[in-house]
Queue: 4 jobs
Job 1
Amino acid sequence: MLPSIEALTRIVREAAREELLGRFSGVQRETKADGSLVTAADLAMQRRMREALAQRWSEIKFLGEEMSTQEHAVLLNEAAQHDLWCLDPLDGTTNFAAGVPYFAVSLALLREGKSEIGLVYDPVRDECFSARRGAGAQLNGRPLGARMPSASTLAHAVAGIDFKRLPGPLAARLAAEPPYASQRNFGASSLDWCWLADRRFHIYLHGGQRLWDYAAGSLILTEAGGDSVTLRGEPVFTLDVGPRSVIAAHDATLLDEWSRWIAKHMR
């Protein structure tokens, strides 16, 4: 039996309200070895979630972003044989530390090397995006809807673009000659996947996400009818914590047009 979405939502919502929103107005931060930020909220949320999940499902192993590289390697080496939680306790730490209200908790259950359950919770808006493989995607318990109409062509699309991690020539071409109608960059990858799934924008491009950034969100997008590949045309999901590029769209037709434009301007 898989854990229920309802039970997981209750756990994540309660923890995020207490551990994240309770610290949002007074952030204590440090810089990790890779130059990224970590706050007391990241660490407290990871501790809280690990304990809460173990109380209910002690047989499922746990991988959190703030664990060591060595722990990540051991857990992923065994992931094909054991169910595994994959948690980003605070996706959008830079936003959180700066007082920007765009951050989320991302939780996925991996089974046999695939995401079986994905849940992304935005505590500021009290929006919980969720999906179970083969059962569709939801927002706060109702089928995931569409904020905007589908984009019929790339020229009509609203894009989510993270310029920082893109190859220089591609970023320069996008800045000088964008093929889409408009562009956004919000700063929390797991939530970006969900906003794409809900068609708050139509296409997406990111140069380097980690497993905990996409494990839940990519499943939610897929279950909402969207699709994604890397810049090399490979599946985004892999049991590795190394960075993966992302090209995504709310449907396969638009992804094909978007991917072909990128391939043409990567040369």
Job 2
Amino acid sequence: MRLEFFFFIGSTYSYLSVSRAADLARANGVELVWRPFSVRTLMREQNNSPFVGKPVKTRYMWRDIERRAARFGIPFDGAPPYPIDPDELANRVATLAALEGWCPRFAQAAYRSWFLDKQDPGQPETLRSILARLGKDPDQCLARAATDEVRSEYASQTARARDLGVFGSPTFVHGSEIFWGDDRLDDALAWAKANAAA
């Protein structure tokens, strides 16, 4: 039983999924495969910007996240800076972490830094602090995040998301079935369990 988790550090609702998906998947016996990708690229291609320039919708979004965070016992202390990670550096570090097997820890730490400490995890100084707390060598990680290998993997996951029909973050994928949004996490896990044989 396997579920792919496409996410973008910079997606607001992904905070909820990054905070709870690993534990839920484990409790359901489902393997969660973390897939950082550039939702920003897909949104530009699809002319699909959900909140920028839409103050009424943005106010609703922050209140909705606050309600859902309270429901699931996830810390929330008001709206953090938004948007973040203009160079998608945090997402390339997440890609490196996915290649090396420490993506959940990094993504959770990056989101805590963003939502709770109100710091942009895409800024090099913030990233260095996050990486050091995780016991990683910041200089080495940032250097590797700039390599062709990591950039190519990030582009590859973005292309795969495009081919699957992904248009937002978070999105959960089982086979060719996609489930968009934190509010579809339970549905995605149930589908993965019910259709594991297929």
Job 3
Amino acid sequence: MDKPSILVQLDTDPQPSVFDRVVAVDAGVQHVFSYGGVTPENVKPLVQGCLFTRGSNDLKRTAIFVGGSDLAAGEALYAAVKKQLIPVYKLTVSVMLDSNGANTTAAAAVRAASRHLDLSRTKSLVLGGTGPVGQRVARLLAMHGGHVRIGSRQQERAEAVCATLRALFPNATLEAVATASSADGPAALAGRELVVAAGAGGVVLLPKKHRDTCKMLKVMIDLNGEPPAGIEGVEPFDKGTAKDGVLAYGSAGVGGTKMRTHRAAVAELFARNDATFDIDEIYAIAQKQV
């Protein structure tokens, strides 16, 4: 008889995310052990508690989820967790990173865009492209091979993201653009077929008057779940809704795929004991979602 499934939730925030715990239960996990305030410095005994309590044949029934609101802190913790695994002795468990929901949200957004566009040829603009979700969206679009503009109020921050992505994808075509003033909007949007708004909630990143200047625009995706909309005129539940000849997705319109992806990824952690799920692996799972 199989031992019960256990997901060890390691959160970089003081209070572990209730959202992530609920999704784990809905994904079929039998027990969720939640820990807050976890850092690379204090994670070792938590990982060892996963590795040394079950025999190697049962380790696939234990997995680790790294979350929290700070993606950079989550990335550091995720790396520290993997360093504690001992593959030479087959003492490993599967690990997933989804701090701030950045991986599952970005994967769902790009999956939505891919339903309508050939992303290997698409000219796109990522607004809020230096934030956690924006960086993940830009990475996936760069991986596909299209021309990606990364927008930020501080162009030097957008340049830094471009540099990081060029190191990963040397053949990617990336361009940093400033979006600090109202005059920047039309220039940043010029010639774009896809725009994804991934900035902070409650901030209008793309007014309708600027959107109307771009005659090539085909798909717009607003990931902002708080009013006002990040892309003016896009409603939360838009899901491929035609708006002035442009297909629109709102946060809830993308959210169904995001939630299915999150649950499916958690469930897949228990298929083996050596999986590591970051953005690329989670995007592959998102592509399977209907």
Job 4
Amino acid sequence: MPSPVIRCRRCKTPRPPVSSGACSRCAEDGVYCDAWEPYDPAPPKRAPAGLAVRSLRGAARGDVRDFGGPLSDVLGGVELGRKILVGGQKGVGKSTVVAELAARMGEALRGAIYWLDREMDVAQVKALFLRSGSLTERVRWVGPDPDVPTDRPVLWRDALPAIGNDAAVVVVDSLQRWTASDKDRTDLLSAIKKLPCTVVVISHANKKGEVEGRSADQHDCDAVVIVKKRKILADKCRWTPTPREVRRPVFHVDSPSKKAATSS
């Protein structure tokens, strides 16, 4: 039988095979200790079933692509398959910014754009894309059918199964309109994590301009963006360092009086 391993009874340091006498580590502490005891090394721990332990060496980074436009710029590109939370106050243009990014992603990835909306109808969503100068051929609107009256509201649990396998990006407009409680919002954000495509969730903002709702909503998403009138801020992003800020383009429109004076 192999001889048992010997360790110091005081500090548990193993004794070298050819060593004898006092423990060298205890001596460094100014303590004389020559008491040794046998012990059996603990067997190596094994990860339980379902848990993986892997080295980061050779691990590939996600597919990050630059689609252009202010929303892609502030995120340093979009890592495909991630979940992005975009907040902003009413009327600031957050849906227009999202529509621009969604259209660019749909064209670049040759996939469909699924726009889940309980407030705007098909015509309003189309106007939203046209406002940003975006194409609409790939847009699929998902929402309550005005031609089919029902005795209950259409829920997000009804809308998610309508998303096809051809989806390049899914837009949920908005988080508050599709949910009725904090738990419902948590369930929705958990459900979209299972979608393989990129998902952009639009959220209302509070009076401070921050994303409305619990901080857990922001934690459940991979990136958090705040849209303001003159700039766009990225407060969180799992693939790009934050905070980041980009300026929004300003569109100048000539007044009728200026046009008349120019023509005359």
